[in-house]
Write a structure and sequence with these properties.
The chain is built from 16 helices and 22 strands. The chain is an alpha/beta fold. The chain folds into 2 domains: 317 residues, Aldehyde Dehydrogenase, Chain A, domain 1, CATH 3.40.605.10; 188 residues, Aldehyde Dehydrogenase, Chain A, domain 2 (3-Layer(aba) Sandwich). The strands form 6 sheets. A 7-stranded mixed β-sheet has the order 15-16-17-14-13-19-20, with helices on both faces. The protein has a 5-stranded parallel β-sheet with strand order 10-9-8-11-12, sandwiched between helices. A hairpin with a 2-residue loop joins strand 6 and strand 7. Helix 2 crosses helix 5, helix 4 runs antiparallel to helix 6 and helix 11 packs across helix 12. It is globular. The two termini are 20 Å apart.
Length: 527
């Protein structure tokens, strides 16, 4: 617990949180700067990278490669493949570092996050360029990912300082306080689809709260996590507070989840893996003296609902952008469009018009391409299999096949006349596939929207105040948007996290997120 005045002084000095600006790519100087960053990043392809445990770089004999999904023969980087032994070493290193880090003043921890934000801001285009190459994001999507990462660092630094402001109460002859202390050692297991923003958000929240972590990036995006890890080191994060561990999720991941010294596991990814983590973490191990926390975000089957009072042109554009941003590889992607019967046919025509206008496809290295490849060969095969299922379950209106070219390119695909209980309307595809469903009326549309096991994001296009009020109560998602797309949550503005099988509603980027990485200690002193 730190001197309150020191905390207040730092808050006054750094000011209130303000969102980082997106890059305006209509300006020629910004286009030139991004092209220069792409060239610099290309010059770093193919290098070998270690795991880092307790500050020590370790190169393993067994390695794996990260590749460019637009050109699968292009090696982004070669990474060390950690197994059980290195995972155990990482836990011990984090446990040792926590002894000091957990007692480091909040102002010092916050200052490191702010320095990291400044370093990332200075390398903004390089961080985005890595995402263009490693996961196939277009320029705008990659830039937004980096902006969100910077926002997380800035926002959580301030939230930690606010959390440190202990209120003192004088009651019945007692001096009473409540303050928050870190949990201990945790595993942070981010996904590949927001390889910088979610990686930074999960890890920086845990770290600034005073915990020590093992960062286990997705095997499809270790390079971006490596660049972030280097920034943390440069910002002054002590050795062992963040340990960078690449390798098999099945081997290293289960070791991290099961170990008795682990206090929490923060995971973003598939429902199947998240539930397995939750189940394994719930089983106490020999020597374990706490209940492990799981902080889980596990995807969605998100819906955009449109009724007959809506602005149909705005709805059509919102549906296309919700469904196909980053090739539909967002947990928040609006993969279902639920349209009331009265405007069903007309809105479908408008959706197709927007698709033909917006959805250019090609190598995301070129700015003019909106749609790039899916992230991997496995993802490529999975999405194509779902498209075949969709051809049996609905009417194919647009796309529906792979491109005959280098890379994992699949056309943006739209199916109409799909039953609400069809597989493509119920199962998370995580690819460029939109399912259009007809509803009898607006109430029926919301009922269909709620008819999956997920509950992450949703959007409702309507100009009727009573219907919007009903949706506020009954549209059962963690993030609900009116008359706009269902993707694009902003840090500090749209706290993000879902209901039901979408996760533990952890609300990343919100005022209560750091509470997940702390425990409250109430102290009463007789005076």
């Amino acid at each position: 617990m730190q001197n309150t005045q020191e905390v207040r002084t730092m808050l006054e000095q750094i000011g209130e949180f303000r969102s980082e600006s997106l890059t305006d790519f209509t300006l020629p100087e910004n286009v030139a700067a991004f092209e220069s960053a792409l060239a610099r990043v290309r010059g770093q392809f193919g290098q070998r990278h270690p795991v880092v445990i307790g500050g020590k770089e370790i190169y393993t004999e067994t390695t794996f490669t990260s590749i460019n999904p637009a050109h699968p023969d292009q090696v982004i980087g070669i990474f060390s493949k950690a197994g059980t032994e290195l995972a155990l070493q990482a836990i011990e290193a984090a446990d040792a570092a926590f002894v000091t880090w957990g007692r480091t003043p909040a102002t010092e921890r916050a200052a490191i996050m702010l320095r990291a934000a400044a370093l990332m801001r200075a390398r903004k285009h390089e961080m985005s360029a890595w995402m263009v190459y490693e996961v196939g994001k277009n320029w705008v999507e990659a830039d937004a990912d980096t902006v969100e990462a910077i926002d997380f660092l800035e926002y959580y630094a301030r939230q930690m300082l606010k959390l440190e402001l202990v209120e003192v109460y004088q009651t019945r002859g007692e001096c009473d306080t409540l303050h928050y202390i870190p949990l201990g050692v945790g595993a942070v297991i981010p996904p590949w689809n927001f390889p910088l923003a979610i990686t930074v958000g999960m890890s920086s929240g845990a770290i600034v709260a005073g915990n020590a972590i093992i960062l286990k990036p997705a095997s499809d995006s270790p390079m971006i996590a490596w660049e972030y890890f280097k920034i943390l080191r440069e910002a002054g994060l002590p050795a062992g507070v963040c340990n960078y561990l690449t390798g098999s999720g099945a081997v290293a991941g289960e070791t991290l989840v099961d170990h008795p010294k682990m206090r929490f596991i923060a995971f973003t990814g598939s429902k199947e893996v998240g539930l397995r983590i939750h189940e394994r973490a719930a089983k106490p191990q020999s020597g374990q003296i706490w209940i492990k926390r799981t902080i889980l975000e596990m995807g969605g089957k998100d819906a955009v609902v449109v009724d007959e009072t809506a602005d149909l042109d705005a709805a059509a554009k919102g549906i296309v952008m919700s469904a196909f941003g980053f090739q539909g590889q967002k947990c928040s992607a609006g993969s279902r469009a639920i349209l009331v019967a009265e405007i069903y046919d007309l809105l479908i025509e408008k959706i197709l018009e927007q698709a033909r206008k917006i959805l250019t496809i090609g190598d995301p290295e070129q700015r003019e391409h909106y749609t790039g490849p899916v992230v991997s060969h496995n993802q490529y095969r999975t999405v194509l299999d779902y498209i075949e299922i969709g051809k049996r379950e609905g009417c194919l209106l647009y796309g529906g096949k792979a491109l005959e070219r280098d890379g994992y390119f699949i056309e943006s695909t739209i199916f109409a006349d799909v039953a609400p209980d069809a597989r493509i309307a119920q199962e998370e595809i995580f690819g460029p596939v939109l399912t259009i469903i007809k509803a009898k009326d607006w109430r029926h549309a919301i009922e269909i929207a709620n008819g999956t096991e997920f509950g992450l994001t949703g959007a409702y296009y309507s100009t009727d105040p009573e219907r919007l009020a009903y949706a506020r109560r009954e549209f059962n998602v963690g993030n609900l948007y009116f008359n706009r797309k269902c993707t694009g949550a902003l840090v500090g503005i749209h706290p993000f996290g879902g209901f039901n099988m979408s996760g533990t509603d952890s609300k990343a980027g919100g005022p209560d997120y750091l509470l997940l990485f702390t425990q409250a200690k109430s102290i009463g002193e007789k005076v």
